[in-house]
Amino acid sequence: FGSSHFGSSSAIKHTNKHGDVAVCTVATMACAAYCARNDDEEFCDTSGSDAKFHEVQIPFVPAVPASPQMPALPKSPTVAFKARQKNVSGHQFNTAVSGAPTWCHGCRRMLWGFGGEPIFQCTLCRSHSCAGCRELDVTCPSLTAPEAPSLLNDVGSAKAQQGDVDGALEAFAEARRRRESAGTLETCDGARLLKNTGLAKYSKGQYKEALEAYEEARRIHDKTETLCTLGGAALIRSIGIAKSDLGDFEGAVKAYAEARQLYETVGAFESEAGASLLNNLGFAKAEHGDVEGALRAYSEARELRDRTKSLRTPSGARLLKNMGVAARVHGDLDGALAHLAEARRILEDTGTLRSTSGFGLLRSIGITLAESGNPAAALDTFNEALKICSCTGASETHDHANLLTSIGLAKHQHGNCAVALESFAEAHRIYEMNRSIDTLDGAILLRSIGTVKLDCKNYKGALVDFANSRSILTRIDALQTADGAGLLGCIGEALLESGDTKGAAKTFLEALRIHQATCSLKSARAARLFMNIGRSKRQSGDTDGVLEALEHAYQILADLRQLSTVSGAQLLANIGDAKGDRGDPAGALEAFRRARDAREQLECLQTPEGASLLSSMGNAHGACGEVDSALQAYSYALSIREQTNSLDTPEGVNLLVSIGYAHRVRGNGEQALLVYAQARQICEATDTLYTPTGAGLLRNIGLVKRDQKDLDAALDAFVEAHRIREAAGCMETPEGASLLHNLGNMRSDLGDMGGALLAYEVAQRIREKTATLETHDGAGLLVNMAIARGTKGDVNGKLQAYMEAQQIHERLGTLKTSDGARLLHNLGITKSELQDSVGALDMFEQAMDIYAALGFLSTDSGVSLLKSIGAVKNTCGDLEGALAAFTRALAICEGSQALRTPDGANLLMNVGCAKSAKGDIDGALDALKEACSIRTMTGSLATPEGAVLLNNLGNVLCQLGELEGALQNYQEASRIRELTGTLQTPGGALLLANLGSARGECGDLSGQLEAYSDARRISEETGAIETPNGADLLMNIGVVKGCLGDFEGQREAYAAAHCIRERTGTLKTPNGKLLLSQMKLAQEQPATLVQRLFGAFTCIPQAV
C-alpha cells in the first residue's frame, strides 16, 4: 500500500500488538466508477434545477500492484513472460518463451520452443505444458496445499486485473469456501479476501452486496484487533464509498471520518491517500446537500496535495476539477471556471489532456460555461472534448453518449431545440448499442429529451419520455433519489402544462417527499420544484401558497448564490407574476426588473423567454398606470419575438393582445383593433383561433367594440369566445369566468339585466370552484353583480354583493386603493337607499380618506363622492353640510372645466335641491335652470338623469306657485322615463306622485288620484312602498279619496300608511304626526281639504 490507494508496486507490513504481521493488499478492479471514487471522485452534479448537465465518472485504470502472496518467479534470463494469461484445469498458465529445452508436465514431451512452438508455465506450481496438455482438466497441485486460499485470492486479483470480474468472483468464492472449511476465515487474510470480494462486486455495480462483504471484513478486523492499520483504514474508506453509491451519504460521511482517524493514528494521513479520502468526503457532503462542507473538504485536500507536492499531477487536476464543479453548484461560476482552468493547465503540463481525464475535464468546463450563459463557448469546448473522445478510442462508448447529452442540453439552452433533439437521438443510439440505456445516465437522457419536448409544447411526447425515464429509475432502484425527485418534478410540470392541475400537485408532493428523505432540499433542483409548486398553486388561486413556495425557492437559490442565473431570473419573474396577482404592481415591477437585469448580464434577454419577461414587465407598468412605459416594454418584446421567429406562437399572440390593450387604455381603439387583427391572422394561420388563446383574443376584440359602442359586434365577439371555450372544455377556469363577466357587462349595456345577472352568477360559481373569487377580479365581478341587482330593484342583494367585495379587498389588502374607494362609495349609496344614512356617511368618509391619500379628490371620482355626501346630508337634514359638499364639488368642476357636462348638470341639480331645502327658492331655480341648459346643450336631457332634473325643477316651480310650468316639467319627465324604460322604478313612482300633487293643486282630483294610483302600483312592484315616501303617498291617496267621497278607501289608505310608519319607525316624524292628525280628522269630518304633500327628490348618482 503506497502513497496512493492505487498504483503501489509493493505491500506495507503492519505489526499489531500481538506481533502478527498483516500484509495490506489491494486488488484493483477494472471498473471506471470504482477507480474514480477510490482515487479522485468525480463530483456528480445532481443539484441543478433540472440536472441538465449531469456529470458521470470518467474511466481511470491505474497500474495494478503485484500480489504479495504470489511466489517469486525464477529470475532465469531465459524465460520471459508475456501479458496474456489463460485459466485452464486449475493451473494459471502464462505464455513463456524459453531459450532452453524443458519438459511438458502432462505428456513428458521435450519442449524446444523452436519454430513458434508455444510453451506455457503455471504461475503457481511452475510446471510447463504444451498447447495440448494445457487443455486437460488437471488440478494444480498448489491449490491442494494449505496456502491454496491465499493463492486463489491472488488468482482472483489477477483475473480482475484482466477484466474477468466474474472469474475473479469465482476464485474468491472458492477461496472463501476453503477458508470456512479450514476455519481460517476469521483471520486477517480472510478479511482481505472479503474486502477483495467486495471490490469485485462493487465493480459490477452490486453496491449492496459489496457493502455486506466490507462489513463482514470489518467485523473480522474488529475481532482480530487489526482495524487500526492502513488496510483497515482503506477498508473503512471502501465502506464509505459503497454507502455513498447507495445514497446513504450521511453514513458515508461518518465512515470517511472514521477512516481519517485511522489514517492519522497510523501516521499516514499526510499523503496522497489522505487527499483522496478528503476528495471522497467532499463528494459525500455535496451529495448530502452540504456544498459548503464539500468545498471545505476539497480545499483541505488541495492544501494536503500542496504539502505533499502532488497537486501538479493528474490526480491533483481531478481534485481541482471537483472543486470547480462544487463551486459551480454553489453558484460561484467564476471560481468554478478558475479551478477548472488550473486543472486544464496541469493536464496540459503533464501531457495528459488528451486522455479520458482530459475528456471529462473539458466536459465539466463546457457544462460550467453553459450555466454561465455562454452556450457558444460551451459548444466549442464540447467539440474539443469530442476530438479527444475520438483520439482516445472512446467513440461510440457510454462516455461519448454522455458528452452528446451535454451538447444537446447546451444547444437547447441556446434555443435550438431541433438540433438538441438530434444530439439526444445520437446519444440514445449509442446507449442502445452499448446496452446501457437502462442506467442512470440513460434515464437522464430520456428526461432531457422530455424537457425539450416540454418546451416545444409537445406535452404528450414529453410525458412518454418521462415515463420511460421513470421506468428505468424504478428498475435500477434509483427513483427514491435526488435524480428521481428531479424527474418527478419534470413530470409534474408536464401535467401542469397539459391542464392536469391535480395530477401535477400530487406528483410535486411526491417529489418534495423524496427531496426531504434524501436531504436534497437545498439544491437548485429543489428550488425548481418549489417554483413549479408555486405555479400549480397560482392556477388554483392560492395566492398565499404561491408566494410561500416561491419564497422557499428564492431562499435556496440565494444560499446557493444562483439568483443571477437563468433559473434565478425565471424565479424572479414568477415572483413578479405572484405579486401582480396580489395587486402589488410596484413589487411585481421590481421583481421583473431584477429578472431583466439578470438576463442582460447572462446575455439571454434576446430569447423567447426574455420576450415573455418583458411582456410581463409591460403588464406591471400598465397596472401602475404607466401606459407609455408598458408600450415601450411591449415593443422591445415584439422586436425580440420577430428576431427569434417566435411571434407565431401563443405567447406571441398574447403579446399582441397586451399591446392592443395598452392602445385601448390610451383611447386609441382603432390602433388596438389593428394589432388584434394581426394577432387573429396569426391564430388563423397557425390553426389556434379555436383555442383558449384565440378565445382570449376575441374577448379583447369585444372589449374594444364595446368601448366604441358597437354593441352588436362586441356581443358577437364575446359569444364566439364563449363557444370556443365551451368546445375546448376550458370554461370552468378563471379565464372563462372573466369572459362571462364581460358577457354580463355586455348584456347589461343592452338592457338585458336578467341575462347579465345569469352570466355574473355563473362566473361567480366558477370563481368559487376554482378558488379565484378571493381575487381582485373576483371583487370586480361582485361589484358589477351588485349594480345589476340594484337595477332590478334588489337593494338587499346589492348590499350583500358590495359587502362581499369589500371583505375580499380587505383580505387582499387592496381596500385603500382607487378601486377600494369606489367600492366604499357604492356601498354608501346602497346604505342610503336603505335609509341607513349613518352607515352611508361612514362609507363615504372612508372613501374620502382614501381619495385624499391618493390625491384623487380633484378627479371625477372625487366630485361624485362629494355629491353623494351632500345628498345624504341633505336627506339627514344637515343642509349646511350638504351645501358645503356640493359647493366644494362645484369648485372642482369649475377648476377642471368639467361643469358644462352631464356630470356638472347633476351637481348643479343637487345644489338647487339643497338651496330649495334651505328656503332659497330663487337660488334653487337658477341652479336647476342652468343644469337644464347644460343638459340641453350636451343632448343629455332625454335621459333618466334628465327626467330627475325636470322632476326637481317642477318641485321648485310648485313652491313658487307656477303650477302650469311644474305640470309641464313633470309630464316631460314622465315622457322621458317611458322612453328610457325607467318609469316603472322607485324614481318613476315619486315622479308620478309629484305629478298627482300638481294636478290636485290645479283642482284635477281624478287626474291626481290616477297619478297616485300608478305611483302606488309601481312602488309596490319595486318594493319601494315600505318607505317613508311610500307612507306619504298612501296618506295623499287617502286625502284624495276622502275628497271624492270614498271614505272606505280613505281609511284603507290611512291604515296602510300607518302600518308602514310603524314598521319604519317614522310615526313620530312631522309627516307621521300629520298622518295621525289626518286619520283623526277623517273620523270627525268625512270630507277634508286636499293636503298637497310632495318633496324634492335628490338624485344620487351611482359610481361604478
Topology:
Blueprint: E1 12-15, E2 21-24, H1 32-38, E3 79-88, E4 91-98, E5 102-103, E6 110-111, E7 119-122, E8 128-129, H2 148-161, H3 165-182, H4 188-203, H5 207-224, H6 230-245, H7 249-265, H8 272-287, H9 291-307, H10 314-329, H11 333-349, H12 356-371, H13 375-391, H14 398-413, H15 417-433, H16 440-455, H17 459-475, H18 482-497, H19 501-517, H20 524-539, H21 543-559, H22 566-581, H23 585-601, H24 608-623, H25 627-643, H26 650-665, H27 669-685, H28 692-707, H29 711-728, H30 734-749, H31 753-769, H32 776-791, H33 795-812, H34 818-833, H35 837-854, H36 860-875, H37 879-895, H38 902-918, H39 921-938, H40 944-959, H41 963-980, H42 986-1001, H43 1005-1022, H44 1028-1043, H45 1047-1064, H46 1070-1084
Antiparallel strand pairs: 1-2, 3-4, 4-7, 5-6, 7-8
Helix pairs in contact: 2-3, 2-4, 3-4, 4-5, 4-6, 5-6, 6-7, 6-8, 7-8, 8-9, 9-10, 10-11, 10-12, 11-12, 12-13, 12-14, 13-14, 14-15, 14-16, 15-16, 16-17, 16-18, 17-18, 18-19, 18-20, 19-20, 20-21, 20-22, 21-22, 22-23, 22-24, 23-24, 24-25, 24-26, 25-26, 26-27, 26-28, 27-28, 28-29, 28-30, ...
Any overview of this molecule?
- There is one protein chain.
- By secondary structure, this protein is mostly helical.
- The protein is built from 46 helices and eight strands.
